[in-house]
Amino acid sequence: DQQVKQNSPSLSVQEGRISILNCDYTNSMFDYFLWYKKYPAEGPTFLISISSIKDKNEDGRFTVFLNKSAKHLSLHIVPSQPGDSAVYFCAASARGGADGLTFGKGTHLIIQP
Amino acid sequence: NAGVTQTPKFQVLKTGQSMTLQCAQDMNHNSMYWYRQDPGMGLRLIYYSASEGTTDKGEVPNGYNVSRLNKREFSLRLESAAPSQTSVYFCASANAHGGGSGNTIYFGEGSWLTVV
Q1: By three-state DSSP, how is residue A95 classified?
Q2: What is the residue-wise DSSP string for A79-93?
């Protein structure tokens, strides 16, 4: 049973527009959520995170929103740039996460010129 | 700026052969992890070590063993490789404190393993 779901395998967005990547989770014990970005042939790199005590966290062009009641989070990228083309993984952890993160299957974001 | 370093980057094995993937981190992190990534499956946790001297199974541990050699190093061993273990393997580390304080995991660059 998948505890972290990214239902869109791919997303195509025009350069300069907003990219919105979505993620749903089922485990109510999750208290920390992260987004990772992955280019081909490289390891995932940390992008942005949010604690369950917040509903929004912003870092430059990237904003993560958390709706705990809906068990839903989203990543907004504004404006989208060609270098944002990558696979984005949503991840979650519980109790500080010493036992690792649970990842979604990823969304391939393609920024079109 | 080494971060998490894993070797080898590429390896081809024959079914039944054994090999060890090495991983080292220089960030003084307590916790280390081995993940595998398969097409359409995301990243799945194989084994982890919450602290030096401890190891625990993750989501997909069958066919693997691990050793937390010291605080820096965490190796993954395939005793008898199978084609189903063809995958990209990622080592990672974090300073996990527990108690919901959050845990950002940092990944190595990956090891591409093909079992024929």
Answers
A1: helix
A2: S--GGG-EEEEEEEE
Cα–Cα distance, A78 to B20 (Å, whole number)? 43
Q: Write the DSSP symbol of residue A59.
A: E
Cβ–Cβ contact A113 with B under 8 A: no
> What DSSP string describes B47-94?
EEESSTT--EE-S--TTEEEEE-SSSBEEEEESS--GGG-EEEEEEEE
Nearest to A23 by CA among A84, A92, A99: A92
Query: Which of B42, B51, B56 lies closest to A106 in CB terms?
Result: B42
To probe the interface with A, which of B41, B43, B57, B106 has the most A CB atoms within 10 Å? B43
Optimal mutation site among B35, B76, B88, B104, interface A, most CBs of chain A within 10 A: B104
Contact A99 B48 (CB under 8 A): yes
- For tokens 């080494």, what's the residue? B2
Q: The tokens of B79 are what?
A: 């005793």
Give the pLDDT score at B97. 54
**pLDDT tens digits, B68-103:** 989 999 999 999 999 999 999 999 998 865 434 456
